[in-house]
Structures are given as C-alpha cells and as structure tokens.
Specification:
Strand order of the largest sheet of chain A: 2-9-8-7-6-3-4-5
Mean pLDDT of chain A: 92
Distance between the termini of chain A: 63 Å
Structural class of chain A: alpha/beta
Largest sheet of chain A: 8 strands, mixed
CATH architecture of the largest domain in chain A: 3-Layer(aba) Sandwich
Number of helices of chain A: 15
Low-confidence stretches of chain A: 1-11
Number of domains of chain A: 2
Helix content of chain A: 40-55%
CATH topology of the largest domain in chain A: Aspartate Aminotransferase, domain 2
Oligomer: homodimer
Order of helices and strands of chain A: HHHEHHEHEHEEHEHEHEEHHHEEHEEEH
Largest interface: A-B, 87 and 87 residues
Strand content of chain A: 5-15%
Radius of gyration of chain A: 22 Å
CATH superfamily of the largest domain in chain A: Type I PLP-dependent aspartate aminotransferase-like (Major domain)
Chain lengths: 407, 407
Amino acid sequence: MNDLKNKSKTHDEEQAIFADRITDVPRSFIREILKVAISPEVISFAGGLPNRDLFPVEELKQSAISIFDKAGKEILQYSNTEGYMPLRELIAKQYLIKQGINVSPDNILITSGSQQGLDLLGKTMLNEGEEVIIEEPGYLGALQAFSLFRPKFCPVPLNNEGMNIGELSFLLKKSLAKLMYTVPEFQNPSGISYSEHTRKEIAALIEGRQLYIVEDNPYIELRFNNKRPASFYSLLPKQTILLGSFSKTIVPGFRMGWIVAPTHIMDKLIVAKQAADLHTNIFTQQLVYEYLTHFDNDAHIKHICDVYGRQRDAMVRAINDFFPKNVGFTIPEGGMFLWVTLPEGYSSMELFDLAIKRNVAFVPGNPFYTDGKPYYRTLRLNFSCSDEKTTYVGIERLAGAIKEIKI
Amino acid sequence: MNDLKNKSKTHDEEQAIFADRITDVPRSFIREILKVAISPEVISFAGGLPNRDLFPVEELKQSAISIFDKAGKEILQYSNTEGYMPLRELIAKQYLIKQGINVSPDNILITSGSQQGLDLLGKTMLNEGEEVIIEEPGYLGALQAFSLFRPKFCPVPLNNEGMNIGELSFLLKKSLAKLMYTVPEFQNPSGISYSEHTRKEIAALIEGRQLYIVEDNPYIELRFNNKRPASFYSLLPKQTILLGSFSKTIVPGFRMGWIVAPTHIMDKLIVAKQAADLHTNIFTQQLVYEYLTHFDNDAHIKHICDVYGRQRDAMVRAINDFFPKNVGFTIPEGGMFLWVTLPEGYSSMELFDLAIKRNVAFVPGNPFYTDGKPYYRTLRLNFSCSDEKTTYVGIERLAGAIKEIKI
C-alpha cells in the first residue's frame, strides 16, 4: 500500500473532492489584518471584540459553582434541541420588558452564537441562486454564512438612516428574495442605526410579500443615549426573524445566542439545528440562566454602556481635533464601531500601510462590500477595546497617516 | 397594516419559502419513541445516553473553579476557529499513546460535538446528487447531517465483521463516491465492530481512489475486552478522516468533539466552521483540558467500561435465559448498544406496541435504514443506562412480548 500513499495529488484532483459551495465563501481578510495588528506597540482599532476587562468573571464563577452543586448530572447530559426552557422564557420576558414585544418561548431556539442562526437560516431557506437582500457595507459573518448556500446577493446601500429606500423600492419591483438581512442598531461595520421613519417605510414596502426581514441585533442593549426606535418585529411580527446574542452583554466565549421565528419556520430550524450539533452546550445555557437570575445584569450592561460611551466620545473628540475636515464619519448611538469615509481619490488600503508604520491599525472597508464595488475609501474603527487616552493617541497617529497620503 | 397581518398563508405558500434541502431530512422517529418511553414504570432500552450516574461532576466543578481563578478573562473572550491548541495537542498525544497513530494538532479542529463534524464534512465535500457510502443499518445522526446536502446514499449492509465486502466491492466498480461513512467500533445501532480482516480488505479496495473513509469513533474507548484492531487511519492515513468525541468519556452536555483531516481538507473545514459558529465554546474547551490534565480520566473510563460491561453481560444473560432461541442478537465488545433480529415474519413495530403495554421500550430498527428497505424485524437495545437487575427484569418483559406475537 505504501507506494500509492506517497503519490502526491495534483491541485485539480484535490479541488475535485470539494463541494462547489465551499469555493464561494469569502476568505476572512479581517483575520489577516488582525495578525498584523497583534504587536504590543500597535494601537488597534481593527478588532471587533467586547472589552474583556468588563467580563463578569466572579459572578459567572459563582453561578458555575451553584449549578454544579444544585444539578450536577442534569447540566451535563444530552439535552433537547430547542434549548433550556427557563432561559427561553427569560429571553421572552426580556423582549416584553425591554422592547415591548410579544415573543413565545416556543418560538425561541437557543443557538451556538447568533452566527449559527445565520447558518440555520441559510440552510432552511436558501436554494442556490435565490436572492438575499443585504446591507452594503454589511456584516461579513452573514455574507460568509449565507455564501455556503450560493444565493445571489442583492446589496442595498446604507445611508445614515438605514437602507436607501429608493434603491430598496426599485430592487423589490423585480426581486423574488425571501430573506432581507439587517443589523438595524449600531450596524457592523458602519455604526449607523435605522431611523423610525426608515423602519416604517421598509415595513410598508415588504408587508404581505413572501419576504422575511432578519433583524440581527447583537448590540441592541449597548445604547448610549436617545430612545430606541420601534423594532421591525413590532412593525411586522409575522415577517420578522430576530437574532439575539449574549456575546456583547455577558461574554462571547460561551457562543450563546438565539433565533426567534414564526412557528412554521421554527419547525424547520429545529430540524436543521439537530442535524448541525444536536443542541447548544447545556451546561453554559444553565450557567447563563443562573447568572441572569442571581445577578443584576442590567446594571452590568449600564456599566458597559458608560465605558463604551466614554470611549466613543474620546474617539469622536479626537477625530474632530485631528482629522482633516473633508474626512466623513458616523457618530454611533451605541455598539462598538464607527465608520470613516475618506475624501474622493483616497484609498483605505494605502492608508492601512501608512498607519501600520505609525503603529495604529483599523479594518479597511473593502471586505464589507460584495464583489465588484470600487468603493474603497472607507474604514471601520472599533472603540470598545481602547481606553480614552489610548484612543486619543491612536486617532492622532491615524490622522498623521491620512495627511501623508498624496493624491 | 393590520388587515394583511391577519391573512393566514396557505400550505403551498408556506412551503415555497423553504429550501429544497430541508425537506429531505428524515424526521427523528426516535424522538417520538423516547416520549412514549419516559413514564417511570417503563424500563427503557430505547435511549442512546451515557449513564449520568458516572459523570465526573465534582472533578469538573473543581476544574471550572480552577480556570476561572487562573484565567478568568481569556476563557470568556472570542477565540480562534481551530480550537484551544493545548487541547488539540493533548488529543494528538492520546492518539499516539492509545492507538499508535501520528496526528498533528494542526490537523485537528475542535467541533461542537462530533455531530458538527458531520455537518462540516457534508458542507465541504458533498454536491447535490453525489454519492455517499453508508452502513446499513446506520447512524441516524449522520444520515440527517448529510441529507441536508442532498447526496445519493449508497448503503452497504453490515455483517458481524463490518461492511459486506462483496457488496462494497460491487458498488465501487461504478461508484464515484467521495465519502464513505463508518462507525467501526461498537457501531450504533448494531453494536458490531469491524474485524481486522475486514478493515484491511476495505483499505485495499479504496486505496488510491478519490474516496475518503470517515472513521467515526465516539465509543472507541468503551472497549470491555479483547484487543482493538488497527484503525482505518493506521491503514490509510491520507484517505481517512477521524471523528472523535468527549461525549461518552467525559460528558455529552458540553457538546465537544473533534475532526482530524488531511491539510487540504482541513483548510476548507475551518472556513465552514467559521461560517457555522465562529468557534466552539472556549470556556468548556479549557475546562475539559484542565480536567484531563488534573484528573485520571483513564481510570474514569475504566470505571465506565466496568459498569457498562457488567450491564451488557446482564443483558446477554437475560436474552439467553428468556428469548426464544430463534431470535438473533449481537454481543458487542463495547459501546452502548446491542442489536436484535427477530425471526422471519415478525415486525419490530408490532413488538413495540406489545412491549409498551408490558412497560418496556426499545428502538425498532426501521429508522436506521434508508428508504425502501423492507427489513423491519430488527431492534436496538441500549445497555448503558439500566443496572443489572433492571436489565434482567426488562428483558424478561420483552421476551413475554415477543412470545405474544402471532405469525
């Protein structure tokens, strides 16, 4: 047998073993960027992480001890696919209290991060070549998850109030899309939030169509100021699929999120979830439930908002102080990201190289656009992980790099 | 808006929103069975669970406290897609010590249960209509996971030594299958293990083809006696993909497993894993590592084998004592299941109804076969969860039900 084992396969032979769908997934450009940004001298606005100094470590430790003592065996056995019922009931209750919307626990499926919700939705709803309406710029994780099911992406550009209504309306005249993916609060990467007016116009446009809005809201609780506008779910409950996450309000390492969907869709999502991983880690489901019922997580979230809000203020102040006046930027009302638009003729990729030489990093806008768009003068800045002083120094360095560009 | 909201959709309209793939997934018949078997009077051999009385609760609690104290923030942040490197190194080391095979940690991806390994393999390798060779009867979870990618299943019947070599050889004459799925040790549902002879014949048949054996071994450490035969990986390392799991040797609730694949396949699996859930729960990855490096899990596994081995003995003894002599059954050398074949003309579905009336449950063989097979006189008995006395009583009841069947 050994003589054959040592024959190396040609590239073509190796490609032939793969499914076509896997060749369509965009490479994570951000991963490569993060490798460059890892040096300790670099001030990095490139990441997309919550600030780990704010993790409720001691509270989670106490909760873990408590559930081991109370129910050691139950929390370690195989469990049901839908997820831990008391946790689903608590999520439903929080929707009612915090957003005034009615969601049944039976329509909530606990997922391994909200990323898995995207995978399950793609599996359940997307045939090859079918259209998905997306935001541009848009969340890369959603593009990756949906790509595997080979849809046709129909991007709609964002403005400061959400999707461009004129473009969406034009698209819908001929589109048979079944899914429309949105991050309506403090969008990743742009930091913008949909205005109440835009939400209502979008709801009116899609109402009664065979089209579901995916309302992905990982940052919704990280609002620094102003009132939260009505959710798509409150406007169109039967045509809205909600994605939620504990990654930004508790910790991301547990990979715990959820999806809310109408019953006929939920039935299929559960089949797909069972085939994907049987169920989400039941130990950390119960751990999160124990934590939420024994500690004041709302106070914890308020503390996160205070810190991130101050860091956003520091970033905005520094941009105003140092950036040339023809550089545009968003002022997010929450979340973790701010979006910068360089003047015509500038390239954020060129800026990236200059910035790294000055020990400051960010994510150029390119990966957030689908192919073929030449709109390459944007960049994403993260403000959750750098304190106010570091942010100020980093933005000053970045301003120096911008001024170095010759056009 | 409200008038439209209240219009109910027709069945056809509702079906139109789903992807074709989701309609192909077999419903979990076993789920329905387990609902019937849940009453406390019923002695159930229907489940597929490890015995929760053997979970190392206290050791896992101590390990959790220890990692919170040592590295509270790191274990809770987002992590890399591939998995926790020290854990992957430990898995590689165990392969060398326990199975004498060389696996690089770079070729190990930590998955959310080995079920996720099946999903990722399907995503990465199966185009619609492509062939997958499977065992018959076969593991339902694999059928479900692969079904979503709409392959053509090519079943090969099992005998007491593994796949029927004649049938496999005939199939391979015309097959272009890229994947062949096997559970070579204490197979679910049949309990049989592949003999060394069969393994070598299979390896010789597929060597040099564009075909990968999936060697799914969740039960490999649960061997009660005799020597472990050479793994497919040791015979054909470049054409074998290994699936492993902590569900049967530590606990299933953490949903933690792994997949080992050649580098060119691993690269694609990592892309698919990132799109599926970014990474597996890093907290429980580190918890399992802490447990494995601070407690004697080999002694723990030996204890599990002692208990399951005694329970298997009790089941075999009771079958010999009570079943009619024309009922066939396997005597597994490990694992959790034993397979019964009723005489010609008997129906295990009919037996199920009679058995439930006598307060004993099992899983009829039907769901373990792909469609169209009339081979409906088999059943699966689980021996991991019932102590020796209960097993003896349950088998006596089942024997009574068998004798009641009129043919």
